[in-house]
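Hi U.,

Before I forget, here's the chain from the pilot set. I'm dumping it here mostly so it's searchable later in email.
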Amino acid sequence: MAVRHRLINARPGDVWEVLADGETYPRWVVGPCAAEPVRGQWPHKDAAIRYEIPLGPLRLSNETIVRRCEEGAALELEANAGPLGTARIAIELRPWGDGCLVIVDEHPLQGAGGLLHNAGFEVLIQVRHRAMLARLAKLCEARARGEERGGAGDLAAASPSHGSGHA
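Structure:
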């Protein structure tokens, strides 16, 4: 089970606003190049978004479903990566001084990811989580400073380039 945390210099409400905006998903999650709603209202329970992950000339179509939403405090997602399987990603927000401690806990549920899960796989997840939390921090801290309120273009400017993976 891969658990990683990061202290973000933003209020938990600012962090939650980013998590609750499905359009920002590909800006903080490592891998997706775009996201679109499939059903429900993100981030409410059973809402889902679909996105593509480019892998060289291939594009994997994935879906993430909200399994639990505790507004302002916790978001549990199930990422479905087709033949690679599914994973549970739990994101917890804790007020911490003037900031927000974000804790991400991910583990495979089904498919190849579960069968191949080992210490080496855990290292890869940790590396991806480090990048994901850095992206999330950048977006949330920009929001807290009021730098991205002007629209998606400003948010994109606050976002690093895309990598690979799912969440």
